[in-house]
User: Fold this.
Amino acid sequence: MSPRKLGYVVPETLREASEFLREHAEHARVIAGGTDVLVQLRRRPERGGADGLRWLVDISRIPGLAGVSSASGTIRIGALTTHEEIARNPIIRKGAPLLAEACASVGSPQIRARGTIGGNIMNASPAADTIPALVALSARVRLSDLGGTRDILITDIFEGPYRNSAQPGEVLVGVYFDALPPTCRSAFVKLGRREALAIARLSCAVVIERDGAGRVVRAAIAPGACLPMPAQVSSAEEILAGKVPDEATVDAAAREVAEEMVRRTGVRWSTDYKKPALEAIARRAIWRALGVNVE
Amino acid sequence: MREVGPGARTTISFKVNGGAVEVDVSAEDRLIDVLREGLRLTGTKEGCGIGECGACTVLLDGKPVNSCLVPALQVEGREVETVEGLAKDGRLHPLQEAFIEHTAVQCGFCTPGMLMSAAALLRENPNPTREDITRAISGNLCRCTGYHQIISAIEDAARTMKAWGPVASGAGTSEPPGAPVVSEASRREIHSRNSAD
Ligand SMILES: Cc1cc2nc3c(=O)[nH]c(=O)nc-3n(C[C@H](O)[C@H](O)[C@H](O)COP(=O)(O)OP(=O)(O)OC[C@H]3O[C@@H](n4cnc5c(N)ncnc54)[C@H](O)[C@@H]3O)c2cc1C
Ligand code: FES
Ligand code: FES
Assistant:
């Protein structure tokens, strides 16, 4: 793995995990599927490698942390559930198709077989694919510690790129959100989807609910990998709200997503490329969430 | 709670290609280290070491994984299949046959990983389209062939395997009468490729 000397513990319960994590604080790190952690261990510390790390805390054998379930309209995904399991799970494909799409777009079959949703969230990469989908679903995450559990909004778990807001003993145990009703459609569109390993630099997740007359009663738009912090773009959502969307409305909403990105990030060297690309992706995602497939 | 201190070693037990093994590992060893160094199963290759190339692909409980990204300690009690497990009773797997036939092997570095991804696909989906195949090997890079020969080989192997009926995983594959016999030359060729360090 690396020249540093690492230790490894395999807790059997959440309590054991939290106790160890509290005791060793910044010298210990959770490992689930390891697809981020093992890459980080190979990096030199000055390039984001795991400096000062002494212990890996392998939570993969703690019972009850894997799998998808649903009860009275709420879907729960255990932290250890892999991208592959989520992508093919019937509850997700029906109740949150955009998340199934996001998970299916991750990496490669090998990465999807090992990478977990908990790791994707807690690694807090700006390019993590499940995050925009979970933001558009207004998901909540549950953190467990010695004193019990607490639930927070998905957007509150991020502190910045590669930084989450969990406390040293806290383990993410699951993600929760309401299943989308049949009146909702959703889409996740990612740039460069066909190059399986290009970690997307841009994506967009959209959920749209319409009434019997076709008017938008709810819209959630969350772009990925382009905002300083994961978030919805409410100014773009408002453009769609209450309307029976036509081409001009969709174009305006998509343009607003891109303009909001520029407002939040400022103009950068990449803006000339990113702005039109994000606008195109947002347009495609919105149309797909309206039931229209456009290339 | 199992604890392996920094620098300490411990013994893990798991199955490789159907057989139980015990290996001494440290917390820093990865599955690929255990396979290549601990067990001398050098068919599995290490290319990038960071999950990008797929040369190290093996099956873990039947699923293709990058063995460069799996800590050895996570393999305790589980089942690993490597390229060495594909041939049965001295006879190459239909995938290996097809790779030779279609010149899908050039330098051969990607081949073991490619074969394992393909084996996982065919086990789950005996009738893959070219698109299914492309997706299944999307985590396996090949710098030599341009993929077409590889995809055709996998298509062909799927047809052969269907004609023969299901090829069981693990031990005890029986082949139908009249199955093509591997030529000595091609057997030597793929064996030397798979076992070259
Ligand atoms: C080649 C390659 C391609 C990739 N492609 C993509 C891609 O297309 N899209 C994408 O989004 N990602 C991609 N990834 C990144 C990675 O696979 C995902 O982020 C994956 O979901 C991480 O999950 P894991 O279980 O492997 O995490 P791990 O590596 O085990 O952990 C990641 C981080 O989260 C923490 N952690 C994990 N689980 C918990 C928990 N339950 N509670 C508290 N902390 C926890 C760990 O301490 C660590 O900091 C790629 C990675 C590689 C190597
Ligand atoms: S060596 Fe494991 S993916 Fe490249
Ligand atoms: S044959 Fe050389 S990399 Fe594939």
